[in-house]
Automatic annotation (TrEMBL), chains A, B:
<keyword id="KW-0479">Metal-binding</keyword>
<comment type="function">
    <text>Digests double-stranded RNA. Involved in the processing of primary rRNA transcript to yield the immediate precursors to the large and small rRNAs (23S and 16S). Processes some mRNAs, and tRNAs when they are encoded in the rRNA operon. Processes pre-crRNA and tracrRNA of type II CRISPR loci if present in the organism.</text>
</comment>
<dbReference type="InterPro" id="IPR014720">
    <property type="entry name" value="dsRBD_dom"/>
</dbReference>
<dbReference type="GO" id="GO:0008033">
    <property type="term" value="P:tRNA processing"/>
</dbReference>
<keyword id="KW-0540">Nuclease</keyword>
<dbReference type="GO" id="GO:0010468">
    <property type="term" value="P:regulation of gene expression"/>
</dbReference>
<keyword id="KW-0699">rRNA-binding</keyword>
<comment type="subunit">
    <text>Homodimer.</text>
</comment>
<feature type="domain" description="DRBM">
    <location>
        <begin position="173"/>
        <end position="241"/>
    </location>
</feature>
<keyword id="KW-0819">tRNA processing</keyword>
<dbReference type="Pfam" id="PF14622">
    <property type="entry name" value="Ribonucleas_3_3"/>
</dbReference>
<comment type="similarity">
    <text>Belongs to the ribonuclease III family.</text>
</comment>
<keyword id="KW-0698">rRNA processing</keyword>
<keyword id="KW-0378">Hydrolase</keyword>
<feature type="binding site">
    <location>
        <position position="134"/>
    </location>
    <ligand>
        <name>Mg(2+)</name>
    </ligand>
</feature>
<feature type="active site">
    <location>
        <position position="64"/>
    </location>
</feature>
<dbReference type="GO" id="GO:0019843">
    <property type="term" value="F:rRNA binding"/>
</dbReference>
């Protein structure tokens, strides 16, 4: 074991934190301040300059991108005969907020994330874990580089905690699929609620999906949400997404 | 110069293609078939298996992710005192379809992209260039790895062809900003067109932005598009995005 690792783990004033991180990550971190930053929510961050706080939000932006890229490659290689629509959708399922929050909790982030609980309600607390997970990916990337981060994510996170085959089977979210497709192709998408039928107790909602000024799908249901879902599904069908 | 490069550039049966790519990329490509694939639009692709065609779409998925990650790091380091909202927005401006199409054209992709022009109209032809650019990034990544791709993008593409400071000044698209924020935070966003005032020649449209069932912004304008824009801006303001 190199001297610097020995020092970090057993002698440095930060040895307790280093060991906690080593248990979590499976490796001895280099630049500790990056990891501390990754676990610092803006509710406890201080302004550093020009109104920017030393919170994990910037690392989250970076980590989100690195994670997206690693997962893209994993799926690209895992499914050589699936098209890009399938890959995009499966990636969304893997890295959605909900999954990342669960992942953060499983990894024990509740002990690590610093936040002011007077400012965050119980619902929001959950989402801090996913944000911190992305920020951690950003920290690992800056500390150790892309290939290291990729191996860490594949061997330590994806293989142990994400069941890709089960996710593949879960129901498709046509709305995200459609929005993603439109963003990718530079198209404007609009979900329009047509006036629901007046004077009835069971209101029927009509939602139309309008893409670049053209209606491409429509759904009628007794809830706005379901009408929207159906309209998105029809639009995906019509566009062959 | 190593023998393999000499062979590729001067002796191999593909030497003409290798030289074209070297002029474009600034390096001698390794696996030529990846680059050929990157420039093959689905209109000229053949089915390979289970309905998947050997077109550039899968590489585009991968390249989009790698590009997003590289640009994220560039901006992260270039703007140490800007928050993640600023970084996200500036990245969208850099890698939007329009910019990538222009970039592809500047790089001379029109000579390289294979497509069936009976199946693609003039408008669509432009967007093939941006798709091919993303696919090319995917090909470089698979051929040469992340660090090489990052250096290629920074030194050969971003520094020469993208004026980040000018993009920084261009007008903000509040709608994309809002949609991105909602996707990031797992919220449902809906742009609702309330009934426009009947019987008038100058119709006034009211658009409401509904996030997770709550109206957070509203805009009234004489065009649906402008009403939507205004509503998105109000919503961004209200949410502090």
């Amino acid at each position: 074991m190199p001297v610097s690792r020995l020092y970090k783990l057993y002698l440095s004033p930060h040895r307790k934190y280093v060991r906690t991180l080593k248990n979590l990550l499976g490796f001895v971190p280099g630049n500790l301040s990056l990891y501390r930053l990754a676990f610092r929510h803006k509710s406890v961050a201080k302004s550093v300059k020009q109104g920017v706080k030393n919170s994990n939000e910037r690392l989250e932006f970076l980590g989100d991108a690195v994670l997206g890229s690693v997962v893209a490659e994993v799926l690209f290689k895992m499914y050589p005969y699936k098209d890009e629509g399938f890959l995009t959708e499966l990636r969304s399922k893997m890295v959605n907020r909900n999954n990342l929050n669960q992942l953060g909790r499983k990894l024990g982030f509740e002990q690590l994330v610093e936040y002011d609980n007077r400012m965050i309600n119980a619902t929001r607390q959950g989402s801090l874990m996913g944000d911190a997970f992305e920020a951690l990916v950003g920290a690992v990337y800056l500390d150790k580089g892309y290939d290291f981060t990729k191996n860490f994510l594949i061997n330590h996170i994806i293989k142990s905690h994400i069941d890709i085959h089960t996710l593949e089977q879960t129901e498709t979210n046509f709305k995200s699929k459609l929005i993603e497709w439109c963003q990718r192709h530079g198209k404007d998408v609009l979900f329009e609620v047509a006036q629901n039928q007046d004077g009835e107790s069971n209101k029927l909602f009509t939602v139309q999906v309008n893409i670049d000024g053209e209606v491409v799908g429509q759904g009628k249901e007794f809830s706005k949400k379901n009408a929207e879902k159906l309209a998105a599904e029809k639009a995906c069908e019509a566009l062959g997404i």
